[in-house]
Amino acid sequence: MTREEFNRVTGLVKSFWPREQFFSTKDGIDTFFNILNRYDYRDISSALSTLVEISQFAPSMAEIVHAVEKAGKDRRDAERQQQNARQAWNNAVACTKCNDSGFQFVTYEDGTEVVRPCTCQKARDRYKWAFMDDDEWKTFVDERRRKGQTQSYDRPGRPTAFFEEHCGSVISIRPGGSAKNEGKRKWQ
């Protein structure tokens, strides 16, 4: 605690409990400083404000220390909850249609189930070929053939229109992967 913060604390104590003699001697001031110096100023200020609201009489040093420790615990708990909330936000999936897997399971009327890329950015990054137009696809195949790989000019898979024509309309669409952290429970 800095001297300025300690002066604010002593000012608060003097204004809240003007008849108390916490600071009547140099030893009293030194003791008060040494006891509260190990705590955060925010906790001390919060504790003194709380004590003013709930105490009818001036508190003892032990009551002040107890209130400061409780205020510190409450502040740390609140910070921990904020950290947990930030962590939960970071673990949340960006695309709920595919749970960030990049693909979806589609079921048609006749029971046919197919996998198709989602429309999210993750799918666009992972399955670039599915979002290429004809010129981009031809350039992609030509590049692979130039490198000595055998690549057909036919696109992989079938278009959605084919399945709707031969299998009927879509019955259900499910995300392709589980949400982050799901299924990572320890069995007991």
Descriptive account of the structure:
There is one protein chain. The protein has 7 helices and 3 strands, in the order H-H-H-H-E-E-H-H-H-E. The protein has 2 domains: about 90 residues, no CATH class; about 70 residues, no CATH class. The two termini are about 45 Å apart. Strand 1 and strand 2 form a beta hairpin. The protein has a 3-stranded antiparallel sheet. The chain is mainly alpha-helical.
Write the layout of secondary structure elements.
Layout: H1 3-16, H2 26-36, H3 41-54, H4 61-91, E1 103-108, E2 113-117, H5 121-126, H6 134-146, H7 160-167, E3 170-175
Antiparallel strand pairs: 1-2, 1-3
Helix pairs in contact: 1-3, 3-4
Mean pLDDT: 85
Sheet with most strands? 3 strands, antiparallel
Count of helical stretches: 7
Roughly what percent helix? 40-55%
Number of domains: 2
Strands of the biggest beta sheet: in what spatial order?
2-1-3
Going by helix content, strand content and strand pairing, the class is mainly alpha
Estimate what percentage of residues fall within beta strands.
Answer: 5-15%
**C-alpha-based Rg, rounded:** 33 Å
Gap between N and C termini:
47 Å
Question: Low-confidence segments, ≥5 residues, pLDDT <50?
Answer: 181-188
Inertia-based shape: rod-shaped
Number of DSSP strand runs: 3
What's the SSE pattern?
A: HHHHEEHHHE
